[in-house]
Amino acid sequence: MTLDPGARCPCGSGDTYGDCCSRFHLGAVAPTAEALMRSRYSAFATGGTEMQDYLLATWHPSTRPTALELDASTRWRRLDVVRTEAGGPFDERGIVEFAAHYADDDGRGIMRETSRFVREGGRWLYVEAL
After folding, report:
1. Containing structural domain, residue 28
2. What sequence ranges are listed for the domain YchJ-like middle NTF2-like (predicted)?
3. What pLDDT is attached to residue 63?
4. Residue 99, CA distances (Å) to 16, 65, 125 in order
5. Would 9 disulfide with which of 20, 44, 79, 81, CB 3.0-4.6 Å?
6. Is there a domain that residue 6 lies in?
């Protein structure tokens, strides 16, 4: 699925996709761990091969899988950021806890995760779910 840059961003920021996560998907550096997490959620919500590449590129090499296949039957509906810990523009580590609402062939659900991020070489990377 390709999003119109004028559509609301899937990450729930309230901005348009063009003013929000699209810029990270196109190569801009996310300034915070939360911004990276939101852009990764938007990549899952958008899907497609280019988004799989983005997800792998923003995954820390120590925990990155060799391949990633997104489930086309999962439709991501809403993201709620529960809390953040550090992860700011001058931090090297960050935690983001979130709830991602989805629907699939079995109904609706919520995926809850507390994610750990590190900043290396000026770029935030997803490390793992805690």
Report:
1. 21-129
2. 32-128
3. 98
4. 21, 22, 19
5. 20
6. no
> How many structural domains are present in the chain?
1
pLDDT of residue 72: 87
Half-sphere exposure (Cβ direction) of 123: Cα atoms closer than 13 Å: 13
Q: pLDDT tens digits for 39-89?
A: 999 999 998 888 999 999 999 999 999 999 889 899 999 999 999 999 999
Tokens of 110: 């919520």
Over the chain, what is the mean pLDDT? 95
DSSP string of 52-119? HHHHHHTB-TTT--S-----TT-EEEEEEEEEEEE-STT-SEEEEEEEEEEEETTEEEEEEEEEEEEE
Residue 5 placed within a domain: no
CA 80, 116, 104, 68 torsion-angle sign: positive
Global confidence as pTM: 0.96
